Amino acid sequence: MSSKTFRISGTGCALVDYLYKPVNFTGDIFKRFLSVNPGDGGLSPGKLVFRDEFEKFTGEDYLKVREEITNGNSPVTLNIGGPSIVSLIHTAQMLAEMNADVYFYGSKGMDKGAAYIDENLQRTPLKIGKFKLSEKYTPFTDVLSDPDYDQGHGERIFINNIGAAWDLFPEDLDDTFFESDIVVFGGTALVPNIHQSLTELLKKSKEKNALTIVNTVYDSLNEKKNPNAAWPLGSSSETYRHTDLLIADREEALRLSGKDSVDDALCFFQKSGVGGIVITHGANPLYFAYNNPLFGTSKGSMPVSEKVKEMIIQHPEKVGDTTGCGDNFAGGVIASIAQQLLEHPSQQIDMPKAIAMGVISGGYACFYHGGTFYEKESGEKRKKIESFYNEYLIQIQKNYPQ
What we know:
Largest sheet: 9 strands, mixed
Number of helices: 15
Strand content: 15-25%
Order of helices and strands: EEHEHHEHEHEEEHEHHEHEHHEEEHHHH
Radius of gyration: 20 Å
Distance between the termini: 21 Å
Strand order of the largest sheet: 6-5-1-9-10-11-12-13-14
């Protein structure tokens, strides 16, 4: 094992989540605000919409609508949120006892939201590479959660406010960012100037010999711009050739590929040059495909954790919400890949094992509110999910022997 500290650097979406729960997505009041056509600015379970687009769609002030659909209830919790920072916090927590540092690069305002993030980041092992100050407000998202939706599996709707994320640019990423062992771009569709430059940023990362990972988020800006076209990722399709691993949920994968089925989407990404692709689908099995020297060659699917499902059914009092499940999934995959590279740098990465850690990390996020888990002591979260992980390895042993 190398004595050099392993470095992971990531950038993308970081904000304050305000969680409202429960919200009834099938009630008469709520139905007035549901989307009619893709990208029209209306609400849609599992998807994200921007506040200004929602106000254009409804012709009403969003804060007044929120009061109505939440029955005037205050958020049950607020938390650090965002596909980049949440996944990196989880990665840092999983690697806290190892010779690894995890850094985040982002932007924030000079307001209460920024103060909240600063204060709570001190409760995590995540390090800051750069947190640029902006005169705009700190990005925030209202998360509306309906635990009973989809036959009790639960779902969320996100209303996003970009704010200071408009002020993060490629030049804000220093040389050390690109010289990391792993470089991660998370939820960049909510950080427009980074998102548009992904092709060049990933290319630069690969030139510095970094392993590159992209985990996506619903791209409302491009959906609004052209709901009938595949979403662009960066300035050209060359983005995919510089991406070692792409993690997306089913909806995002279909819209990025412009395909109608997961199998066709997997084929598209492989032909586009992605080293590996993992497509999640909530409580349903996920799909993956990879074909490169880093990961080897395989294609298939993996189920969710039976133990997590059992716990949710038998102990509903222990269930938090599904916010951050996808972000923690990505963080678990990143952490496993990093651990494998630390322990066996010359060996091929065991992707089923990395995906398994993602499955458990995402599943465990159901047992607390919000995406970020605050540890009482270093290593606490890893210890809590180890039994779930070990049982899951037994669950999938038949198809993916270790």
